[in-house]
Amino acid sequence: MSTKNYDARLLELWRDGGGPGIELKLDSEATSVKLRQKLYQLRKAMAKEKHEWYELAARATISLVYLTDDGKENLYRDHKSLYGKQITAWLLRISASDLNLDKVLEEAGYTVVKAPSLD
To answer: For residues 39, 41, 42 and 46, what is the CA-based torsion angle, rounded to 10 degrees?
Structure first.
């Protein structure tokens, strides 16, 4: 399917998600999973068409998170073991994969060394 068949706002999600990152609050598990799948399909179409924002989309990851009534954030893969807790919200996050790595490396004291001047 062509990127032209998708809502243009979904392309913008990939653009912003691959840069500063975004978070959407959704109403249900079904809506969250459907949107995630639609975004993955769109990213494939972007790659096929060599879309101008594909590089941003390619370096981004999607996380599904749910919040429980005890105030905790939980990754989607853990939702089968709620043990009496109620889900209060679903979040879909798109963020650049390397942003997380940059933060970890920075906190560990690793920095990018600037090349010496050739002057």
So the answer is: 130
